[in-house]
Design brief:
- The protein is built from 6 helices and no strands.
- By secondary structure, the protein is mainly α.
- The protein has one domain (14-98).
Length: 108
């Protein structure tokens, strides 16, 4: 939990990206869903897409330097989580990801 709080406090992230991350996290933990869970399969997919968007931003869209500067555990756990969440990251359409997040990593 401290990882996400410290990442949220990082000055290198734009305010808009922080707002989007908080909204996505609230949608994941909220009992209210975009698609109600009582719809078989589809009801659970909206939570997975939200998790995919969050993981896409943290593990693929950001330069690794930013999340690693706040990572409190061993590097192998960071790599494991990045590998684990990669399939979720591709669940969200690229058009939505590009519109939601404005952060642009350094070109070098």
């Amino acid at each position: 939990m401290s990882f996400l709080v410290n990442l949220f406090k990082d000055q290198r992230l734009p305010r808009w990206d922080k707002v989007v991350l908080v909204i996505l996290a609230l949608l994941v933990v909220s009992p209210l869903d975009l698609i109600p869970d009582w719809f078989p399969v589809i009801g659970q997919l909206d939570d997975l897409v939200m998790i995919g968007l969050i993981s896409e931003y943290i593990f693929h869209f950001l330069d690794d330097e930013i999340p690693l500067s706040h990572w409190p555990y061993q590097l192998k756990y960071f790599v494991w989580l990045k590998t684990f969440f990669t399939p979720f990251a591709f669940m969200a359409p690229k058009v939505i990801r590009n519109k939601l997040f404005k952060f642009k990593p350094r070109p070098f």
